[in-house]
Design goal:
The structure is a single chain. The mean pLDDT is 97. This protein has strands spanning 3-7, 10-12, 18-25, 34-39, 45-51, 57-59, 67-72, 77-82, 91-97, 100-101, 105-109. The chain has no helices and eleven strands. The chain is mostly beta strands. Strands 2, 4, 5, 6, 9, 10 and 11 form a seven-stranded mixed β-sheet that branches.
């Protein structure tokens, strides 16, 4: 059974940092593509960052220079390091590797 389990969300002040984790089981992340997708209250899903099997990474313009996606093949886990967080980064963050989705983790940026 394939599972994606996110963790690491929480409440942080503007300018702060968080690191999200997505632990995968049932498949090997090193040979797959994974993305982080977020959904803010009242808005549609927004693709944030992705990593492909070859290791190349991609980021949405809204997070470039602030967010970094990476993976640890030994732990079968993908990370999203989020720095310089802004209130507009507040959302539920989901890990995705088509067709599978995690349950999401809430990130709230507020003073």
């Amino acid at each position: 059974e394939v599972q994606l389990v996110e963790s690491g969300g929480g409440l942080v002040q503007p300018g702060g940092s968080l690191r999200l984790s997505c632990a995968a089981s049932g498949f090997t992340i090193g040979s797959s593509s994974l993305s982080w997708v977020r959904q803010a209250p009242g808005k549609g899903p927004e693709w944030v960052s992705g990593i492909i099997s070859g290791g190349s990474t991609y980021n949405a313009d809204s997070v470039k220079g602030r967010f970094t996606i990476s993976r640890d093949n030994a732990k079968n886990t993908v990370y999203l390091q989020m720095n310089s967080l802004k209130p507009e980064d507040t959302a539920v963050y989901y890990c995705n590797s088509d067709p599978w989705w995690g349950q999401g983790t809430q990130v709230t940026v507020s003073s």
